[in-house]
Amino acid sequence: MYLHLDMDYFYAQVEEKRRPMAKDKIIVVCIYSGKTENSGVVSTVNYLGREAGIKSGMPIVLAKKKAPPADSIFLPADKDYYIQVSMYIDEIIRKHCRKVVQASIDEWMIEDDTSKAPELKDAVQRATGLTSTIGAAPSLLGAKMAASKAKPNGILILDQEKEKKLIDESDVEKVPGIGRKTAEALAVLGVIKVKDIASVDVGRLVETFGRKTGAWLHDLGQGSYDKGLGEEKEQEEVSRIGTLKETTREVHILMEKLDGLEKDPLEWMMHAKKSYRTLTVIFITDDLRIHTRSLSFNHPKQWNMNTRKEREMLIEEFLKENKHHVRRIGIKFGNFMDLGGQTTLF
Predict the structure, then answer these.
(1) Domain count across the chain
(2) What is the residue range of 71's domain?
(3) Is-contact 110 4, C-beta < 8 A?
(4) Per-position pLDDT tens, the chain of length 346
(5) Do residues 252 and 334 both lie within one domain?
(6) Edge-to-edge, what's the strand order for the sheet holding 274-285?
(7) Strands 326-338 and 237-248, bridge-based pairing
């Protein structure tokens, strides 16, 4: 059986947890473009915001019209912090389950017994204070759709018969992998619900959608949607970011903060047996803009090699080019290479 664990309104829920005083308020996490104070789109909103009609992808200007100022908080997305929380949740899940693939920053696909669902959900909430929803079914598609149906903070376990009924009776646009344009093209063929696909000739599906998508839709209509868990995409970078006690342009203060932040990424590389070729320092200035300065090495660096001189050079380069004070700073390692069994130079 497969389980699909999906964190509830992840970014907004993390921000609720960070801000207890925001209880019973609308939390809107935004991607600001920086052109004007309100330019950009909504990334995630909590359920109070959804009840007010705010949705992901909505322009921030429109979202602010729907949210009373006294009852709402609009925040810039803190992606690096969300990644840290996600990595912590990932560790918890892997302690409880035998085969796990992380599908996104807030979703996990798991192959295990359905009896693990309540235990796993409780473990994540006890460790983080965050709620999640778990769907379980004989296929990954069924598990994901079960999780969507059980949201928020629920568990839905389907046997083969119930899984087929849920998928067959679903509108096609509710199926992961079917977007608006595909749903509109299916409607032209008389397909509204998944079960309607069975009445369309496979040749017509291939002609309309191409060989790969047409064949997938045909299998979906025939009730054949069982695929293995697959392999997890290898992590391409690791980073940490932190807030300074006060905004500054002092190099020694910025360096001291980086010294603390780099410990976790270096430890991760040690255990993962990775060397890196790219070092990046992230700056968030007092105008809330994000800047980066990177350095690539001709020869891979190992986790225990001192890069203090290089970090200081990147900081000085940034301060020379930018007059703003730094509010937050971070460090990122990427462009990994395998070390094999070697974890130290000495």
Answers:
(1) 4
(2) 10-78
(3) yes
(4) 999 999 999 999 999 998 888 888 999 999 988 778 888 999 999 999 999 999 999 999 999 999 988 899 999 998 878 888 888 898 899 888 878 888 888 999 999 999 999 999 999 999 999 999 999 999 999 999 999 999 999 999 999 999 999 999 999 999 988 888 999 999 999 999 999 999 999 999 999 989 888 999 999 999 887 666 555 556 678 888 888 989 999 999 999 999 999 988 888 888 778 899 999 999 999 887 888 999 999 999 988 888 899 999 999 999 999 999 999 999 999 989 886 543 333 2
(5) yes
(6) 237-248, 326-338, 274-285, 290-301
(7) antiparallel
Does residue 330 sit in the same domain as residue 269?
yes
CATH number of domain containing 108: 3.30.70.270
Question: Closest by alpha carbon to 150, among 8, 287, 339?
Answer: 8
107 is catalytic: yes
Catalytic residue among 37, 51, 107, 316: 107
**What is the model's pTM?**
0.68
Residue 332 located in a structural domain: yes
HEC secondary structure over the chain: CEEEEEECCHHHHHHHHHCHHHCCCEEEEEEECCCCCCCEEEEEECHHHHHCCCCCCCEHHHHHHHCCHHHEEEEECCHHHHHHHHHHHHHHHHHHCCEEEEEECCEEEEECCCCHHHHHHHHHHHHHCCCEEEEEECCHHHHHHHHHHHCCCCEEECCHHHHHHHHHCCEHHHCCCCCHHHHHHHHHCCCCEHHHHHHCCHHHHHHHHCHHHHHHHHHHHCCCCCCCCCCCCCCCEEEEEEEEEEEECCHHHHHHHHHHHCHHHHHHHHHHCEEEEEEEEEEEECCCCEEEEEEEEEEEECCCCCCHHHHHHHHHHHHHHCCCCEEEEEEEEEEEEECCCCCCCC
The amino acid occupying position 201 is: D
